Amino acid sequence: MKTKFFTFILTILTLTSYGQIQLDSSFSISGSVDVYYRANLVGTNNPENGGTLAPGTSFANLPGFALGMFNLVNSYEGEKVGFVADIGFGPRGADAVFASPSPLNLVNQMYGYWNITDKVKVTLGNFNTFLGYEVISPAANFNYSTSYMFSYGPFSHSGLKLDFDLGKGLSGMIGVFNPTDYTDFNPTADYVAGAQLGYTNDMGGAWLNFILSDGFYQVDLTTGWQITEKAYLGVNATTAQESFAGAALYLQYATSDAFSLGLRGEYFGDNGIEVVGKDESVMDFTISANYKVGNMTIIPEFRIDMYSNESVILDGTTGETGKSLSSFLLAAVYSF
């Protein structure tokens, strides 16, 4: 059964690419494939864990040569209605929907929408979160590794939301969702409220985001602006009740159409989620290059995580604990 499914998908992609299947112009197939190599620098192996110690963030944390995700997005955009069916195969895809059992963990997003008017849209289903700067798909991130704020915030929501075009660049959203990351069904009969207020212009945008449930809230500010033709600045700041708080700065500079350099600097405070220890913190700095060859983006990346907790890192060379971890990563992301 699995073999037949994969054969069907590959056949559709192949025939479509050669123009042998004429799809409605409103229907599209897109996605990405990503793979990577990751290694810590000398003195940061952790043999007690059976491998190489990784930052406490999501996705790009496997040692050696590793797989990311084959992401296949099918969408239909009609005049009034449409849908998105987004499927992810591989470790990154499975980690993104960790609250779903197999084979439901293949579904990254699945929703339908209705443009009630040109100012109001209603969406029902499972969609990636509106909070935060980074996203699940590596094709939409400049850095390949991810931030702590992204890793411990919500990944996806299932529910109903209304999006509003308020005019003059302003937008709004309100919604009600299952408990965060329970995307298949609601196991508790509890619900989460969400809201967003945004502003965009030709240079970028800013979004203020909220989620609220019984005994919990998260407030998030995400913004990104094209400062000059070659320079870009992004900022993300968030606080989650009795869990964590943090802020990150994203700087990118394009030296040409094919090559860009970027820096992410993040501060993450642990206020009870116990990622790096309660009342402890971590600062991570990531330098990434993006080199584009056709539809492929090559991403060499250097990252250092510096912890306030002195016992987070075990040095495999000396057997002593430490408070910093540096690593190198090389990723390839192909988008279609």
Write the layout of secondary structure elements.
Layout: H1 2-17, E1 27-40, E2 45-46, E3 51-52, E4 64-77, E5 81-89, H2 91-96, E6 107-115, E7 120-128, H3 148-152, E8 156-167, E9 170-177, E10 192-201, E11 204-213, E12 216-226, E13 231-240, E14 244-254, E15 259-270, E16 281-293, E17 296-307, E18 313-314, E19 321-322, E20 324-335
Antiparallel strand pairs: 1-4, 1-20, 2-3, 4-5, 5-6, 6-7, 7-8, 8-9, 9-10, 10-11, 11-12, 12-13, 13-14, 14-15, 15-16, 16-17, 17-20, 18-19
> If helices are DSSP runs of H or I spanning 4 or more residues, what is the number of helices?
3
For the record, the CATH class is Mainly Beta
Q: What is the quaternary state of this protein? A: single chain
Number of strands: 20
Q: Main sheet? A: 16 strands, antiparallel, barrel
Quickly count the domains: 1
User: What's the architecture, going by CATH?
Assistant: Beta Barrel
Order of helix and strand elements from N to C terminus = HEEEEEHEEHEEEEEEEEEEEEE
CATH superfamily: Porin
Q: What is the distance, rounded to the nearest whole angstrom, between the alpha carbons of the first and last residues?
A: 26 Å
Mean pLDDT: 90
Report the structural category. Answer: mainly beta
Q: Note the beta-strand portion.
A: over 45%
Helix content: under 10%
As for the CATH topology, it is Porin
The general outline is globular
Uncertain regions: pLDDT < 50 for 5+ in a row?
Answer: 14-22
> What's the alpha carbon Rg, rounded to whole Å?
21 Å
Task: Record the strand order, biggest sheet.
Answer: 1-4-5-6-7-8-9-10-11-12-13-14-15-16-17-20
